[in-house]
Amino acid sequence: KRHLISAADLSRDDAVLILDTAEEMARVADRPIKKLPTLRGRTVVNLFFEDSTRTRISFEAAAKRLSADVINFSAKGSSVSKGESLKDTALTLEAMGADAVVIRHHASGAPHRLATSGWINGSVVNAGDGTHEHPTQALLDAFTMRRHLAGAPDGGPTHHQGGGDGTGRDLTGRRITIVGDVLHSRVARSNVHLLHTLGAEVTLVAPPTLVPIGVERWPCEVSYDLDSVVPKSDAVMMLRVQRERMNAAFFPTEREYARRYGLDGDRMARMPEHAIVMHPGPMNRGMEITAEVADSRRCTAVEQVANGVSIRMAVLYLLLGGAVLEPAAESAETK
Ligand code: CP
């Protein structure tokens, strides 16, 4: 494959290959010298039309750890604010020799347009497009779940904080609950597709106004009652309430939302002992998750960010056809 646009495009073998490669990359990150020479001379462009902290920084860290040159482009402060189109921006990047373009865009479908337009020759990686998909987020989430939940020989959960890597395994039979603003969430859509591909059983929980039309065609269950689902979950993933994408008609009051769909200490206590709490970030503390839960040892939000670097290294490595996995310590540059 040349591009990564959608988690729905990944077969089980594709997904497991990326997850296993990310485990190799995580081992590199544990070494004193964290760099590999594999993408030396290649150029990765981070093309961000929408704000980001985690995704942009981790793609930059991932590309640099693979020794690629990195160009960071933010629409704010660029000629996009003078009206320059995606096409002309892409042609400019192509003129600079981009081997991969990592794009975040407010319009669903923008990465697909870039990949199929012929404007650029390099690989396109979707870093989040509108309400459509965020495939590397789903991959880092699956990586995190696999480390905590995969690998029990009897099919039962094996919870060990930061424990085994689950290499080669999928998430067959794991029960994953995704809670909150599903309507606006590219994270939820990508997770539903990828987790289904990896064998997990996914349940979405949301207020009726925040469930997308057509969800009955998604490979998951839908519930409106968080309390009935929490005790049966191996992982509970809380979604950010995306107030910037909604008006008052979507939303109960913040207090009512937190009461019915938020995760607090009492609800977390009703999760199975091995179960983890996840959040893609950024978090609205006090809305979808209380500070007590966000800061608890069961919450993997910070671990997810660290795992994001390994996943993005794996994706860039596999798409750009990196050569042998050798530490950069062996190269002349780092001697
Ligand atoms: N999870 C996520 O995509 O975070 P950012 O918006 O900070 O990149």
TrEMBL record:
Residue span, Aspartate/ornithine carbamoyltransferase carbamoyl-P binding domain: 2-146
GO molecular function: aspartate carbamoyltransferase activity
Residues bound to carbamoyl phosphate: R54, T55, R104, H134, Q137, G281, P282
Keyword list, A-Z: Pyrimidine biosynthesis, Transferase
Signal peptide: none
Stretches the record annotates as Disordered: 149-171
Catalytic activity: carbamoyl phosphate + L-aspartate = N-carbamoyl-L-aspartate + phosphate + H(+)
Keyword Transferase part of the UniProt annotation: yes
Biochemical pathway: Pyrimidine metabolism; UMP biosynthesis via de novo pathway; (S)-dihydroorotate from bicarbonate: step 2/3
Residues of the Aspartate/ornithine carbamoyltransferase Asp/Orn-binding domain: 173-319
Coiled-coil regions listed in the entry: none
Pfam families assigned: OTCace (PF00185), OTCace_N (PF02729)
Entry binding sites for L-aspartate: K82, R186, R240
EC number annotated for this UniProt entry: 2.1.3.2
Superkingdom assignment: Bacteria
Stated family: Belongs to the aspartate/ornithine carbamoyltransferase superfamily. ATCase family.
Complexes and interactors: Heterododecamer (2C3:3R2) of six catalytic PyrB chains organized as two trimers (C3), and six regulatory PyrI chains organized as three dimers (R2).
Function: Catalyzes the condensation of carbamoyl phosphate and aspartate to form carbamoyl aspartate and inorganic phosphate, the committed step in the de novo pyrimidine nucleotide biosynthesis pathway.
Protein name stated in the entry: Aspartate carbamoyltransferase
Organism (species): Streptomyces pathocidini
Protein's gene: pyrB
